Fold this sequence. Notes:
By secondary structure, this protein is α+β, with helices and mostly antiparallel strands. The protein is 27% helix and 31% strand. Among the domains are: 20-307, Methylamine Dehydrogenase, Chain H (7 Propeller); 439-703, YVTN repeat-like/Quinoprotein amine dehydrogenase (Methylamine Dehydrogenase, Chain H); 715-821, no CATH class. It is elongated, with a radius of gyration of 44 Å.
Amino acid sequence: MKIRSTKMREAHKxxxxxxxxxxxxxxxxGEHIVTASSSDxxxxxxxxxxxxxxxxxVRHHRDGVTALALSPNFTCLxxxxxxxxxxxxxxxxxxxxxxxxxxxxxxxxxxxxxxxxMLAAAGDDEGIKLINTIDGSIARVLKGHRGSITGIAxxxxxxxxxxxxxxxxxxxxxxxxxxxxxxxxGIAPVIGSDFSSMNIVSWSPDGELLAVPGLKNDVVMxxxxxxxxxxxxxxxxxxxxCFLSWSPNGKYMATSGLDRQVLIWDxxxxxxxxxxxxxxxxxxxxxxxxGNALAVIDIMGKxxxxxxxxxxxxxxxxxxxxxxxxxxxxxxxxxxxxxENPSASGSLSDLGEDSHGESEPFSRKRLRKKxxxxxxxxxxxxxxxxxxxxxxxxxxxxxxxRDSSDNKRNELKSVAISAGQKMQEAFQPGTTPQLxxxxxxxxxxxxxxxxxxxxxxxxxIEIDFHDTSSGPRVPxxxxxxxxxxxxxxxxxxxxxxxxxxxxxxxxxxxxxxxxWANNSxxxxxxxxxxxxxxxxxxxxxxxxxxxxFLRIFxxxxxQRHILSxxxxxxxxxxxxxxxxxxxxxxxxxxxxxxxxxxxxFNTRNGTQPRRGRLPLTPGSCLSWFGFSEExxxxxxxxxxxxxxxxxxxxxxxxxxxxASKLKKPEENYWVVGLNTSKLFCVxxxxxxxxxxxxxxxxxxxxxxxxxxxxxxxxxxxxxxEFIMNNMHLHRIQSxxxxxxxxxxxxxxxxxxxxxxxxxxxxxxxxxxxxxxNGDKLVRATELVKLLALxxxxxxxxxxxxxxxxxxxxxxxxxxxxxxxxxxxxxxTIPASTEMKCDTSFNAQAALTKSHFTVExxxxxxxxxxxxxxxxxPSLTKKRSLEEPSKDVNIDTExxxxxKLEMARDFKNAFDLKNAKKLKDEKDKVDEVEDARKLENxxxxxxxxxxxxxxxxxxxxxxxxxxxxxxxxxxxxxxxDSLKKKVKTDR
Length: 986
C-alpha cells in the first residue's frame, strides 16, 4: 500500500514545546477551516481554497481554546477555553456575540444538537450543561461522571446524549428526562491528566451506532438502544486511539492514535483502506462536508488537508448521506433535507457477504432492521402519495429516515387536527407540573405558596407565606394521597388528587391553619369521579369534578350545595364570597380557538351575579385565571394578553396587558396575580413556561397598560394613563353606589374618588398641551369637556392663552360659561339672578382673556355681585321709595344667590388661603343680610310715617339709609361698622 504524505501548515505555535490538544472544523461548503489550540487564546479561520492567505484571527479568550463547535446551519461558532468561558461568534465573520456560560474549571468539549437550539458543554467541572442557545439559559445539568468529561455527542435522532470521561466511563443520557439509561465503565482508555489527547465518542450519521475508542487499540461499536457491544475496528494501530471521525455518509471512519498514524476504515468491511503517518500526534480530524478530503491538526498546532482520503475507486464519503444528518469529526451535525433513495444507502446491505466471526450476529440483526424499515418506508410513502386527501398513513416511518414526505405528513396531521380540535384540559392556577426528583408548586399566589417534593410512596408538603409577619406558621405535612393541586387563603388550604386506580380514589382534603376545636381537618372521597379543580373562599371550599359537578362545602366540611355545570371544567378560583368557574361552552373551532364560558357565584347569597363568554386571543388557551387584590376577575391566555372584567357596557373584559409589545421572544410570563396598576409574574426563559420551586422564583412587576394603537399624537403613555384613570374612577363610583344602595357608609371612598378625579384632570391637561403642540385643536376641545373640576377648566384656559391660541381660549371660555349656566339653572335661582350672574361671568371672561388669575376673578365676582349693590345710593333710594316691602325679597334672593355661588367657589378652591378669604366674605354678606332684614322689619312695623322718615334719611345720607332712624339706632350703628369693615378689607 502506497504511503501518502500531507503538507502541514502552522496555525498555532506551541508555547511549551511539548504539544497540546488542537481542534479543527470544516464549514458547510468546504470554504473555511477553523482551528484552535489549548495553548493559544486565538481562533483562526483559514481560507481552504487559498491556504497561503493570512487567516482571520478571533481573539476573545484570555487563555487557550480547548473546544470548538459549529451550529448545524453553520452560522454560529462556539468555543470553550481554559479560562472557563464558552463564547459564541457569528460565522464566518467571527464577530463576537455573547458569553453564553461560564464554568469554574477548564472546558474540554462542546457539541450542538441537530436543530442548533441546544449546546452541550463539559470539562473538568462536575456535570454537563445543556444550554439553550436562544436565550442562554441552562436547560439542564447532567451529573454522574467521576472524571473530567472529554467527549460529548448528541444522538442525530435527538433522543440521547453520549459522554465519556478521562477514566474511560461512557454514559448515555435520555435528553427528555435527563436520566442515564446506560453506564459503561472502563471501556475507553484512561488518559489521566494528559489533555493533549482526549477520549471521544461519536454517533454514526444514522444514529444506530456509537463509536468509542477501545482498550485494545481499536474502535468499539455499541448498539444505540441496548448499548450492546456489536463489533470493533482493529488493525495496525499499535497504541490507543485518541480521536475518531465518521465520514458524512457513515460508510468510512478516520482514526488517529498515539502512534502518530491516521487510518481510514471501511466500516462495513471492518478493515482499513488507507493510512498515513505524521510527524506528530494528530489530535483532531474533520471530514470535508462536500468532496473527498480530511482535515487534520497535530499537537504542535499544524494543520493540513488529506486530499482523496478515500481511494477514488471506492464510493465517495459524501455519497448518499443519510437525510437525518451526518457527523464530522468533532461531533458536529451536518444534515441535508434532500430526498434520499433508500435502496442506495448501501453500507449496511453488504454485511452478509463480507462479515466474519463476531460480526455475524450484528449483520443479521442490522439486516433485519433494515429490511423492516424498507418495507415500512415504501408502504408509507405509497399511501401518503395516493391517499393524501383521505386519511393518515397507517404507519409512521422512523425519524432517522425523514424525507420530503414529512411535509405531507404534516399536512395530514393538520387536517386531522382541524377535523377535531382537542379541548383544553383542566388546570389549577399557580400549579407547576411534576418533574422527576424536583420540588414543584401545588399552589403559588400573591399570598403564599404550597410546595411538594415527591419521595418513594409519599410527598413532603410545605406551606409558606410571602409575608411571614402576618401569615401563620404552618407545619409541614406528609402526603400519602399524591395531591396534585391546592388552593390557599388566610384561614386554611385545600388539596386534591386525581384517581390512581380503583384503590386510590380521588380525595379532597381541607386543612385549617387554626381552630378552636380539635380534629378540624376533614376529607372527602369520590367514587366514579375525580376532582379537576379546587377553590377556597371565606367560609367555604369548592371542588369541580369530572362529572361536571360543582360541589360547595362549608369550612367545617358540611356538604352545602351540588350544582351541575354546562360543560367540562377548565379551572376554578375563589375570592371572599365569590366563586368563579370556567367551563367549555363547546368544542374548539377549526382555527384552534377554545370556546370558554365563565360563571361567578355568590356563595353567601346563593346567586349568580355574572355569567358570559370568556374572551381569548385567537389560537390561544387559558393559562391563568383569578381575582386581583381588589377582587376584579382576571384572565391571562397563552398569547400573553391579560383581561380584567368590568361592569362597563353591560359587563365587558378590558385588555390591560399584552406581552407581545413588551416581552422578548425568549421570555414567557408565568402570572401570579395583579393589583390596580401592576401585574405580578415570573419571567421564564424559553422553552420553560413555568419556574422551578427551588430556588424560590423572583417576582417581576409589569405595568398594566392597554394595547393602544399608534397615535398620530405620539402620546400613547398619556392616553393609556387617561383610560386607566377613567377605569379606576368608574370602579370607585360603582362601589360607592353599591355601598349607598346597601345602606353602608361610603365616606372613605369619597377622598379616593376626589384624588382620582384630580389625577384624571392633570392627565387631561397634559393631553391638551400635547394636542395644542400637535395642532389637534378639536381633540383638545373634546378633552376640556371631560375635566371634572372647574379650576381645571380655568387652568386649561390659562394654558392655551399662554400658548397664544386665542380662538381655542374662546372655545374653552364658552365651555366654562355653559357649565356654570347649567349649574346655576340646576339650583333654585330666579331669572333676574341668573341675568346678573351672566353679567358677572361676562366680566370675568373678559378679564380672563388678558391673563386672569383666580384671585382677580374672585375679586371681580365680589365687586359685581348683587349683594354689593346694596351700597349703591341711587338704587337704594329708588327701592326704598317705591317698594320697601319688595326690597326685602330681592335682597334676600340676592344674598341667597351670592351665598350659593360663594359656597361653590369655596368647595372647588384648592388654595386654603383663598378658601379662607371666600369664607370670610360669605360671613360678611350674611351679617349684612341679617342687618337689612332687621331694618326692613322695623320699617314695616312703623308704617308710612316711618317710611317717609326713612326716605328722608336716605336722601340726606344715601350711604347709610338707617343713620337717622330713632327706633333703629342699634341697627344703623351695626350697619355702619360692617360697611367700614368691608371697605377696609377691600
